Amino acid sequence: MAIARAEPIQKGARLWPFSNPINSVGRSVVAGFAALVIILAAVVVGSAWMVREHQSNLADMEHHTTVADLLQDTQTKSGTTATFLFGYLTTGNETLLPTLQESIDSSQNALDEAVALEDKLGHSHVAQLKQIQQELAELRVGTANMISLMQSGQQKEALVAIEAAGPPYQLWTIQITNAIKSEQDQVRALRKSADRAGDLAFWLLVMSGIAGAALAVVVSILIARSIIRPLSSLEATAREVAKGGLDARAPVTGPRELAHLGDTMNYMMNTIQQHTEEIEERGRQLLDARAQAASDPLTGLGNHRKFHEKIRDVVAAAQTNETPVGLIMLDVDNFKGVNDTLGHQAGDQVLRDLSATIADIASLEQGYRYGGDEFTVLLPDCDQHKTAEIAESLLHAVGKRVINGGHAENITISVGVATFPDMAESAQELIYRADMALNWAKSAGKNRLGVWDSVFGGNQDGGKPSDGGA
To answer: 3-state class of 400 per DSSP?
Structure first.
């Protein structure tokens, strides 16, 4: 720094350490002002970047949230489609078709909208969503074929087709679940980016405050009121949401951008909470539908499909644990005569009474309506002796029923018994042999019990009639 020429020092004059204090202070002020301008420029640039970053993050968060919601809606509607499709194929109830078609169309429309949105913005995983879209279209064609088979009277072929479609549908479900997770991960990443932008804004503001004590006080007060508090509130809201508090809401205060961010976050949380409640409700409805699809509406027992699923699981567990399994098959003797003589309502009451007897002697969970007037009782951990005891109890428990306004009808049943593993080596063989024992009981005079190894193992007199024998 150049020193101005000094005037001759007069006697008694005070000596200054610098020749020209104004020049030195001026340069310091200029340097300080230049530094302050640089800091303020950095603050302005950083603030502009923060605003752009926030706006970009908000737009991307809204986009990914929308796509995730559409994919979630696709997955939920597809699950509803599968449930109603199976219900239609097993019951033939034509009233399920409008709801089934609505679920199919809603699932396809939601996925198409998600793919179009991703394709418009040119995101990298558009190909993955298009693959999911193509596979859904193939599943939809398969669904149409199953409905066509059912409507043409080919129920068996339709059921075979839906079983074959199970693995592709499960794979498709995994793919769309992964796609949903990817969208949700993007939302979380954008939220972290917004937090980082907020932290950077904080430090830029702190640096600008250091430029001058007086300015720092003013700026600190302004910042505390306009930026730091809203940012802290947004951060606190984000942390509360991260802990699972979906009802947390951010205050819509402060600068326009932060107020917009708070308003957008609140909108996002309202949407997420609404969709979460809808998904939970749909989940409850799906569970109810599955429970209804697995039970017989007349008797409350498990239906034919549920029985076959259960016996496979029970026999598989018994093979692993080396435990026995008992199976009782029974049907009502001369049931057609009850319907013809007293009417179908009386016949329905006989079936309900028989179901109640099964629930009393065995349990509601162990009884199944196999079809028509035929029932099964599946008994895990029951050997031949215990199974036969329960079968005899059922045989004797079925007594006279007063039905149709007082007309007495002597209701009897025929019972067949087989056990695993001493009489059968698989679930299918167990069903076959219990059924054959039941057929023997019917042909031998009805109102009696047939045990497979007694009837077909060499002792042709192995059936036990009821005390009241018919």
So the answer is: strand
CA 138, 97, 171 angle in degrees (round to 5)? 30
Tell me if residue 263 is catalytic. no
Domain locations in the chain?
27-291, 304-465
- Give me 461's structure tokens: 């007199």
Taking only the tens place, the pLDDT of each residue in 25-69 is 345 445 655 766 776 776 677 667 766 777 777 777 787 788 888
Q: Is 327 exposed, middle or buried (0-12, 13-18, 19+ CB in 10 A)?
A: buried
Q: Is 166 exposed, middle or buried (0-12, 13-18, 19+ CB in 10 A)?
A: exposed
Query: CB neighbours (10 Å) of residue 323?
Result: 15
**CATH topology for the 304-465 domain:** Alpha-Beta Plaits (3.30.70)
Q: What is the C-alpha to C-alpha distance for residues 430 and 451, in angstroms, rounded to an integer?
A: 12
Among residues 69, 296, 373, 435, which one is catalytic?
373
Instruction: Tell me: pLDDT of 257 over 80.
Output: no
Instruction: For 416, list phi and psi in degrees, rounded to 5.
Output: -120, 140
